[in-house]
């Protein structure tokens, strides 16, 4: 954004500078030409005036010597020419002139020629004595002539144009610097807002910004702080609600423990007591998690060990339903950045999904395998497959369940930088692939050859 603002300022300044300096440069050129031409016309007229008064004051006609003396007096021997009626000239040789005939008829004028401008001023010489039969002496016309070259017409123009160009560059640089500082004052609070938003997204609920910059950007900063405070309030209210709900679950759990103690079968009573204790610990963890602020620290767990442990737990139910379960973990440890309890809940969710949506006797296979810098947990079954891909969306279910299981697994995978994918096998059955990021495998597991599936 900062660069774009500077470029916009540069473009606008260039347009203004060009629109201002180009006409000004043309004016400077025209003024220089007018100045040079006016100076030449003034000098020619001064020489012509001196020649015109010479016969009356000196009592002599306009001669070559007189013309030479006048030119020397004006220091114009190298720039001016006096042309007599018989074609003789005094002064510098300026060549032929197409306007000389018109000047001899008494017209003073300036005309453009090749290489510059020519200035001609006629002088009437009436000193001659009249010839017999004439009552007035003859009138002779002497022409004073000079040429103003293109170099003289452009004298000082290059320097003036250079100064104007330097002024234009200076204005552009100043405008770009000013625009950059302005853009920095705008972008800096926007960058702070962006960093604060990312920090809030990572779970740092104490993130706030100092409203700064233009009024609109400062208002966005104030709105962000309000949003952060509102989010903290909502999360605190949700934690309290979850904690209260979890606490209310203790009462029916206590009643279940009492009823379990009254069972006549000790083995069944022990199994139920173990399940109730596990549920009680889950409720306690839920209350503890709800009552403490969200943590942003890192956790890790061995996915292979947890898969073997949870698969063994579900083996009892699989045997009762006539299912064959196989597990393949690669023979080593595969660490993923997820807490052990949460990772166990993901594995339980995927296995429970098989039991809930396939008929009894359907076999399933669980595998853990590395893929590049990540690790995949794959659960396959030989059931009817998935009716639609939308089952991984929160609340979506085709089997009458809550539709939260796969979404919970997906969110756990995304927390580690991975994802969850659901598909159907070509030969029938569903394939749920959960990819976790941040794999950290030991060297012996990396070097191990693919092992055969383990039959539980």
Structural description of this entry:
The protein has 456 residues and is an alpha+beta fold. It folds into four domains: 154 residues; 89 residues, no CATH class; 43 residues; 155 residues, Histidine kinase-like ATPase, C-terminal domain (Heat Shock Protein 90, 2-Layer Sandwich). Helices cover 54% and strands 16% of the residues. The strands form three sheets. A six-stranded mixed sheet has the order 11-12-10-9-7-13. Strands 2-1-5-4-3 form a five-stranded antiparallel sheet. A two-stranded antiparallel ribbon has the order 6-8. A hairpin with a 2-residue loop joins β3 and β4. It is rod-shaped, with a radius of gyration of 52 Å. The relative contact order is 0.07.
Short description:
With 456 residues, the chain is of the alpha+beta class. The protein has twelve helices and 13 strands.
List key phrases describing it.
alpha+beta, rod-shaped, six-stranded mixed beta sheet, 456 residues
CATH architecture of the largest domain: 2-Layer Sandwich
The N- and C-terminal alpha carbons lie at a distance of 60 Å
Cα Rg: 52 Å
- Mean pLDDT, to the nearest integer, reads 81
Total domain modules: 4
Strand order, biggest sheet? 11-12-10-9-7-13
Question: With helices defined by DSSP (H or I, 4 residues minimum), what is the helix count?
Answer: 12
What is the overall silhouette?
rod-shaped
Superfamily at the CATH H level of the largest domain? Histidine kinase-like ATPase, C-terminal domain
The arrangement of helices and strands along the chain is HHEEHEEEHHHHHEHEEHEEHEEHE
* Count of DSSP strands: 13
Assign a percent range to the helix content.
Answer: 40-55%
Could you tell me the CATH topology label of the largest domain.
Heat Shock Protein 90
CATH class of the largest domain: Alpha Beta
**What is the percentage of strand-forming residues?**
15-25%
């Amino acid at each position: 954004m900062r660069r774009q603002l500077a470029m916009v300022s540069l473009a606008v300044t260039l347009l203004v500078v060009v629109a201002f300096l180009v006409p000004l440069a043309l004016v400077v050129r025209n003024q220089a030409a007018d100045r040079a031409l006016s100076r030449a016309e003034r000098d020619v007229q001064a020489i012509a005036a001196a020649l015109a008064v010479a016969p009356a004051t000196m009592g002599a006609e306009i001669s070559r010597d007189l013309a030479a003396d006048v030119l020397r007096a004006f220091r114009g021997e190298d720039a001016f020419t006096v042309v007599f009626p018989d074609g003789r000239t005094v002064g510098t040789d300026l060549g032929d002139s197409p306007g000389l005939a018109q000047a001899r008829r008494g017209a003073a004028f300036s005309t453009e020629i090749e290489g510059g401008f020519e200035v001609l001023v006629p002088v009437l010489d009436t000193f001659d004595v009249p010839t017999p039969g004439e009552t007035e002496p003859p009138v002779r016309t002497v022409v004073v002539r000079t040429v103003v070259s293109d170099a003289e017409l452009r004298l000082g123009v290059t320097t003036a144009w250079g100064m104007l160009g330097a002024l234009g560059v200076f204005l552009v640089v100043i405008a770009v610097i000013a625009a950059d500082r302005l853009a920095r004052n705008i972008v800096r609070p926007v960058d702070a807002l962006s960093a604060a938003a990312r920090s809030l997204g990572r779970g740092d609920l104490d993130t706030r910004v100092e409203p700064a910059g233009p009024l609109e950007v400062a208002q966005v900063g104030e709105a962000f702080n309000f949003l952060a405070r509102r989010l903290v309030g909502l999360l605190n209210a949700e934690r309290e609600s979850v904690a209260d709900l979890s606490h209310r679950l203790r009462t029916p759990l206590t009643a279940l423990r009492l009823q379990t103690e009254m069972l006549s079968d000790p083995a069944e009573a022990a199994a139920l007591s173990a399940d109730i204790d596990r549920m009680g610990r889950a409720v306690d963890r839920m209350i503890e998690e709800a009552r403490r602020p969200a943590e942003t620290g890192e956790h890790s767990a061995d996915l292979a060990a947890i898969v073997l442990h949870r698969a063994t737990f579900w083996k009892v139910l699989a045997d009762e339903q006539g299912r064959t379960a196989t597990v393949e973990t690669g023979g080593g440890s595969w660490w993923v950045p997820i807490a052990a309890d949460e990772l166990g809940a993901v594995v339980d969710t995927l296995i429970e999904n098989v039991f809930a949506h396939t008929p009894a006797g359907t076999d399933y296979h669980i595998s853990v395998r590395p893929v590049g810098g990540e690790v995949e947990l794959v659960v396959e079954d030989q059931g009817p497959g998935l009716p639609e891909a939308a089952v991984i969306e929160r609340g979506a279910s085709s089997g009458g369940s809550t539709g939260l299981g796969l979404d919970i697994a997906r969110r756990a995978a995304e927390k580690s930088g991975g994802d969850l994918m659901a598909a159907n096998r070509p030969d029938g059955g569903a394939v749920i692939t959960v990819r976790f990021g941040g794999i950290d495998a030991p060297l012996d597991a990396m070097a191990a050859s693919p092992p055969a599936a383990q039959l539980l």
